[in-house]
Amino acid sequence: MTLAELKEAVQELDMPAFTSKQVAQWVYGKHVTSIDDMTNISKQNRERLAERYEVGLMAPIDCQRSKDGTVKYLFPVETTQPSAQRSTLNAQRFVETVFIPDGERATLCVSCQVGCKMNCLFCQTGKQGWEGNLTAADILNQIYALPEAEQLTNIVFMGQGEPMDNLDNVLRATEVLTADWGYAWSPKRITVSSVGVPHKLKRFLDESQCHVAISMHSPIHEQRQQLMPAERAQSIAATVELLKQYDFTHQRRCSFEYICFGGLNDQPLHAREIVKLLDGLECRVNLIRFHEIPAVDLPASDEKRMESLRDYLTKHGVFTTIRASRGQDIFAACGLLSTAKRQEQL
């Protein structure tokens, strides 16, 4: 709930309006697990609140730990989708969330959908299909119920799902995370990814100050379309032209994610086309190793080829890094998240 919604809720229960700020402080500031823990609210009012509301925390039901320190958690969720599309009325669904510690930095990769509609060729989540949107509560619960929540320095919306395809709930979640009455995080600690969705990406850029990361994977229209069906709806060229309308010269950052496939999108032609495409846009490129998924015949670039691509882009004014692969041994690395098997078991 937003502060305005909390105010409306307490007034409906005949409580003073200032109680809403107390509730917000207890939930978003102190992260209590029970309404009864809100000790500066009278016992009578706590009982009234508990009759109608709950904090809503749902702990992860499973976790896997990588040899590199990455931890993947499994959270139960209640997806929002038309009842006609549900296999059962109250189908149990899950999402995976990845905690990535790295020295003084600790990043959480959160999910916003069960599965994904985008069906990118190289992504295991897309092979799962789309099974529903997460509510803002379920998005925030991945943070709230995380055992390492107090260690977090950054959040990336790069888990399961396309954030722009569930934009209302993503914006509501980031509002809670950045509002003074909420977590009070700087939006610069949050990055939201997208393949580029018509109209939705523009709305996100207008309504949020969080960083944006665009999945490119090829600068060439025909090739990107083969890798990413979303290219048909909004081309990478159109996405870049949209981004050029916004200011990324200060604290807000624009980045491009680029999975490298050996001999396919890591050649000198692609390097030149990336430089040409991004000319005039303040941004960075993150090169990512491809992690093989079943039934997809795509080769991974070798280290030398990725370094050559990085060096060319950097030399021509595009700040480029090779992202370290984390959690591959527990299927927590980029493109490997999926809960299809777990849901089939139920």
Overview of this structure, please?
- The chain is an alpha/beta fold and 346 residues long.
- The chain is 32% helix and 18% strand.
- It has twelve helices and twelve strands.
- The chain has helices at residues 3-12, 19-29, 43-52, 124-127, 136-144, 167-178, 200-207, 221-227, 236-243, 268-278, 303-315, 340-345, and strands at 62-65, 71-77, 93-102, 105-109, 113-115, 130-133, 154-157, 190-194, 211-215, 254-260, 284-289, 319-322.
- The strands form two sheets. The chain has a ten-stranded mixed beta sheet.
- β7 (154-157), α6 (167-178) and β8 form a beta-alpha-beta unit.
- α1 (3-12) packs across α2 (19-29) and α5 (136-144) packs across α6.
- The longest helix has 13 residues, at 303-315.
- The two termini are 31 Å apart.
- The model is unreliable at 82-90 (pLDDT under 50).
Broad structural category: alpha/beta
Count of discrete alpha- or pi-helical segments spanning 4 or more residues: 12
Query: What distance separates the N and C termini?
Result: 31 Å
Element order: H for helix, E for strand: HHHEEEEEHEHEHEHEHHEHEHEH
Question: Would you count the extended β strands for me?
Answer: 12
Strand content: 15-25%
Radius of gyration: 21 Å
What summary fits the major beta sheet? 10 strands, mixed
Compute the average pLDDT.
91
Q: Identify low-pLDDT runs.
A: 82-90
Please bin the fraction of helical residues: 25-40%
Describe the global form: elongated
